[in-house]
Design brief:
mainly alpha; about 60% helix
Length: about 120
């Protein structure tokens, strides 16, 4: 049964669930911009994180969720690079992250960039 005009809908959409998860992550601006471009999405330039996420399309929210919440990997390794790019490491250093998290990010980055041929 559909919702009637004037009555609230009490369910939470998939995008709403993604936003609820993602707003708790300290996602840097350059990541949001990169994902928005990748998914041909709008993105508010400024504002609260939940407002900025709300401005993005479903595809970009799903991709952000897959990369940062689900920690999915893709065949090309792009997802992992988004999680541990040098800019992201510097950003997390400036944020209130634990030293252990930073060390793990750096170790993972070095392992991914090193070829054991």
């Amino acid at each position: 049964m559909g919702s009637k005009k004037g009555f609230p809908s009490f369910g939470i959409s998939q995008s709403g669930a993604f936003i609820a998860d993602l707003k708790n992550y300290n996602l840097p601006d350059f990541i949001l911009t990169l994902i928005a471009k990748e998914c041909d999405s709008d993105l508010l330039e400024r504002g609260r994180i939940d407002d900025r996420l709300t401005s993005m399309n479903d595809a970009s929210l799903e991709l952000l969720h897959r990369v940062f919440v689900d920690c999915d990997d893709d065949e090309d390794g792009k997802f992992g690079q988004l999680r541990i790019s040098p800019d992201a490491v510097l950003y997390f250093m400036s944020a209130e992250s634990s030293l252990i998290t930073l060390v793990l990010l750096v170790i993972n980055f070095v392992i991914e960039k090193t070829s054991f041929s």
